[in-house]
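Usage example:
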Amino acid sequence: MTIQTIRTQPFLDQKPGTSGLRKKVTVFQQPHYLENFVQSIFDSIEITPNTALTLGGDGRYYNSTAIQTIIKMAAANGFAKVIVGQSGVLSTPAASHIIRQYNTLGGIILSASHNPAGPTEDFGIKYNTPNGGPAPEKITEAIFAKSKVISTYKIADFSDVNIDIIGEMQLDGFAVQVIDPVTDYADLMASMFDFSAIKLLLQSDFKLKFDGMHAVTGPYAKELFVNRLGAPQNCLMNCEVSETFGGGHPDPNLTYAHELVAALYSTKDVDFGAASDGDGDRNMILGNRFFVTPSDSLAVIAANATLIPAYKQGLSGVARSMPTSGAVDRVAIKLNIPCYETPTGWKFFGNLMDAGKVTLCGEESFGTGSNHVREKDGLWAVLCWLNIIAAKKQSVEDIVKSHWLEYGRNVYSRHDYEAVPSDIANSVMTHIKSQFTSLPNQKFGKYYVKTADDFSYTDPIDGSISTGQGVRILFTDGSRIVFRLSGTGTEGATVRIYLEAFEPNVANHHCDAQVALAEMIEIAEEISQLKQRSARGLPTVIT
Ligand code: G16
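Running the assembly step on the lines above writes:
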């Protein structure tokens, strides 16, 4: 095998965000751009002899081109083998599972998650460590540091490999193993859940709709729900994968999963709806005319976990990201297990799971998961709900409402303002921070501010400190407003406002979160001046 050393120059903009490097496809198409970042990854890890790399992506535009480049660079940089999903496809949770199952030296996952796909849209790349989880900050910072000084990269000179056919091929002592992307993952799910009970549910008059949003989960959903659990084929919507994700925005929320929402809200016939995102790690759960917030979903799964075979012994602990509501905290108190509050980003859960401190984790950003892999897992969350419904024989709405009766309700909503010019978004954050000393004890309507701060986190396992993780306004009654700039957007800045009010007596208050939170929404504007500064009316997305 001939190995070429190519001269290059740094790009200086390759700082990984919340979940890897995400940029427009046209940015990745610049000569050497992808190669520089991949070399920076390889230079930041120790590639020992006889080790393999897991490789796959969500199938979006540019996936197959990038896969060929990475295979050649892995060969040149000393990997003995690359294990790649057929046609270059692996959902993010499936990739995490493959890394763990085949003990590879981590993996490279190609995805821009829920961001749209296509020649003028987004692409992304991230490195996951051998535990199957997103690289922690010390590795992503090392990658960024290398990318700023890179002068050469190494690439093997062989023709593109046929990755459409399952099997293994040898190239001068280097192997490429093409695997079925679905089977290992589906087997893992079958080992965790009560498939017999779910099968009975799905073959009864209970109607499921799953929306793959034209993205990676289509084939996984087909294998699980139709082939293994016997649901009718027409329970699947948008499950044919396309390179452009059907021109849509595969973010499973009330705005972008509108087809699914329409199916659940326009008729009484559908009992349960779920959607997943571009790379299969996010999920949205709906009952008939009933939306389950991701924060409530985590709390309900935690409270009912012992109904699921994989968790019948109970949970060691739970964790949630800071902006996620405190609903799961209340369950943890009752179960007498620890509850950890981490910054936004799944990478912060990895150490806690590796140390056996937590079993379940979740984020308000439509992510829920457990220690079966080290990524959030959309289809796993759907199976949790189906397993719980099969065991409790109640509707989604009844399960959530009886949960609120028992624990109280953390009324919750997130308002997103997308594509705000970065200077305006930064000025909003600076303005809020300038009030840190004056806000405490101030009265806004019926709410009194207790504290205002910028969240920072010390990892209880390795002691690493992460600062500047979102601005919190905490009120004396436990209500909160959090302001944070998204780390995953590629256009301007996305300002997120997280609103939460605790209601102990659910019988007493309005069920619609926007109505229940109306006063908090006004307070958020008063403190941030976001609408005024950005000249924006309504949020782009409300969930
Ligand atoms: C990524 C991370 C999540 C995180 C989310 C936050 O999600 O994997 O752990 O909660 O970003 O996004 P933002 O910074 O935009 O609020 P994904 O699904 O995009 O990989």
